[in-house]
Amino acid sequence: METPLPAGTPQTVVPGRADSETAVPVSDAFPDFADAFPFERFNRMQSEVLPALTDRAENVVVSAPTASGKTAVAEMALCRTLAEGGTALFLAPLRALTNEKESEWERFEDLGYSVYVVTGERDLNPRRAERADVLVMTPEKADSATRKHDSRRYAFVTDVDCVVIDEVHLLDSEKRGSVLEVTVSRFRRLCDPRVVALSATMPNIDDVADWLDAPEATTFEFDDSYRPVPLEADVKTYTHGENAFADKYRRLYRALDLAEPHIREEGQALVFVSSRQDTVQAAKKARDEIAERDVPMGARGDYDFHNDASDLNNTTLRQSVLDGVGFHHAGLSREDKNRVEKWFKEGKLQLLFSTSTLAWGVNLPARCVVIRDTKLHDPLEGEVDMSPLDVLQMLGRAGRPGYDDRGYAWVVCGHREADKYRRLLRDGKEIESRLAEELDVHLNAEIALGTIRDLDDVLTWLETTFYYARASSSPGEYDAGGDLRERASDVLDDLVEDGFVATGDDLGVEPTPLGRLASKFYLRLETARGFADLAEQDADDLDADAILKAVADATEFHSVSARSDERDAVQAVLGSRGDHLDPGPRKVLAILRSSMTGTTPSELQSDAWVIRQNALRMLAALRAFLDRFAGPRAANLASRVEARVENGVSDDAVGLTAIDGVGSGRASKLATAGLTSPADVREAGRDALVRAGISDGVADQLLESARDLPAIEVEWGTFPTTIASGENEMCEVTVRNAGAGARAGVRVTVNDVEMTTKPSYLGEATLPVGVFGGDAETLTFAVEVTFPDLPLEPVVETKSVDIR
Q: pTM of this prediction?
C-alpha cells in the first residue's frame, strides 16, 4: 500500500483528460464483479476515481455534478470491500432509497453476496444483519444502531469495514445534518472503517476531506464539464398577489410557459412543487391548461398504454396519465410510483409533477426542470424556505443523457428573492456543520453511550467532527474565537449543572438517569428537563391534561405555527384549556385532545398526522420518565393517554387497545357490546365477539391475545372483618397474576393513605399489611395494581374493617 498523503486541497481534475485515454472496462477493474454493473465500461469520472478506490486504502471524497455517475463509484467501493472479504455499509439519504437499493443490488445477490436493509419500519433480524456483506441504512437508523452497538442485536455495526456516504452534502441539512456527522464520527471511533463520501458539487470539498483525513490523491472535485449533458439554469420571477392560493396558479402558469416549448419539441418537463397534494392539484390544472393551449401530448390512442394505466391504484393518476401528465410523491403505492417512473423514462409522460424527494432518489432526468415552489409548509416549522441543497439537487435533474444536447432548469420565485437564487446558481452552496446547534444533545448522547468518560475524551471526540474541521478553516463563520475546546468544556459544565451528567472525584464523567433517558429518546434537553420536572409533582395531581400539555409545550413543537383559519378550530376543541401556551403549542394540544376521541377538526387535519406521530414518540418518552422518576401509577396514566391519542378511543375502553389487533374500529364495536377491557373479552368468549361484529377468524385471534395479557387475582387471606379500638393485627395480601407476566406496581392504601408499594415483574407478590384499630369507624383497605407498559385500567380491590 502507498504511504498516505496529508489531507489538503483536492486534486485538480483536468476536463477532457480522460477523453484521450480509454475508459476502463469493468471486467479489467473488477473481473469477479463485471455482472454487478449494468454497463461494460466506466465513464470518464468513474475511471479517474478508480485507482484511488482500488490501489489505495485511504478515505475517498468525490464531488461531482448530478447525473455524472456517482452511484457506480459507490458500487466500485462495495466491490473493493467485498473482494477483500469485508462488510460494507451504504448510508442512503432517504428511507425510500434504501428500498430501491435492495432491489437494484439483487445483482450482488446473484453473485453470492448478501444485501440487507436495516430501517426503522422493518423488524431487525440480527442474524441476517451479522451475516450481510452489504448493509443499507439511513443516517438516522445508523445513529440508532451505533448507540446500541454494545447490545447483541446491534453488535454487527462494529464489524463494518467500509462506509459509503451517499450525498454527504446532507451534512448541511438543518434537521438531519448533525445526525449524519456524529454517526460517521462514531463509526470512526468504534471500528475505524474506510469512508467513501460522495457529493454533488460543493465549493468546500477540502473541508470534508480534512474531516475524513482524505489526502489530496483521493479527493476529487469534478466540474460541470463532467455532466453528461450541459446545463443552463436561471431564475424567472412572477408578480405576487394578495392571495397565496392564487399565487400558486400564477407560478404554475409561469412553469408551463417555460416547459411548453420543450414539450412541443418532444422533450419532457419535470416540475417540482411543495407538497403531495400540490402534485395532484397542479397536474389537474395543467391538464386543463395544456388542452386549452392545444399542446400535442398524451397517449389516449395507445390501446396498450390505456390498459396498463387501468391497473393504477390511484384513480386521479389513472385519469391523468392518459393526457401525458403524471404526478409522483411518497404517498403513492410502490407499484404506482414504479409505473410513473417507467412511463416517464419511456417518454409516455411528457409532464411530471413531483415533490423534492424525487430529486434525491431515482435518476429521472428531463430536458426541462422547473421549481415552482421555493417555500413549503412544514407542520413542525410553519412556512420555510426550501433547502438550497434541495434546490441544487432538483435543478441537477435537467438534461437526459443520450437524448438532449442541453438541459434547461429554472427557479420560479418572487422579485425579492431572485438575487438570492441567482447567487446560489452562480456560487453554489458551501457545506456547513449543523452540530453547533445541537452540541449539548449529541455530547450528552456520547456520554450516555460510554464513548466519552472524561474531559480529554470530550476534546478528542470534538476533533473527529466536521464541526471542528469547518470551524478550523472558517473560524469567523462559526464565531469560534479560535477555541472550540473551551466551548465544548462549557457545554459539558452545563450538562453537569442541569443534571444530565455527573462528575467523579477523578474528574471522570458519567450519565445520570436523566441523561440516559434524554439520549434514548432523542429528546431536546429542555424537553427532557421539563418531563423530569413533571415527574417530581405529586402523582395524585397528575392527570391526562397535564401529560398532554407537557408534550404540546415540548421544545420540539415550539416552531409550530397556527394559521388564522386554524385558531377558531383550536378554540372550539380546547375552550380555556392551555391558555398559557403560545398559539403553535396550543394547536398541538388541540390535535392531541381531539385525537383521543377521533374527532380532529378538518381545519387541523393537514398537519395532524405529522404532529401526532411526533407526539406519540414524546408520549412514549414521557411514560419512561414517569416510570423512572414517579413510579408505575404515573407511567400507566401516560400509557393510557398515549393509546388514546394513537387509537382515538374513549377512556373507559382504552384497555382494549392492549389486545393485539384492536384499534379504534374494533374497540368501538366491542365497547358498544359492553366489552371494555381484556378481562371482559376473556370472559365473554368467541361467540360474544362475533355477535359484537368481529369476524370468526379475528375473534379467535383477539381472544388468544387477550389471554396473553395479565389477569389479576387478589387474596385477602385471614383479614379480619372487625378490630377493637387500640388493637392491631398483622395480615398478608397476595396478588396473583393468572395471565402472562408483566411489570407492575402494587400499592396498598388504607383510607386513601399509602401504606406500602412494591414494583414487581408480576407473577405473584405477597405484601404485609397492618390492621390498626384507631379513631376511624371503618378502615377501607385498597390494593391497586398498575401496569406501566400497558394501557390497562388499574385493577383495584377493596376490603373494609369495622372498628368496634
A: 0.86
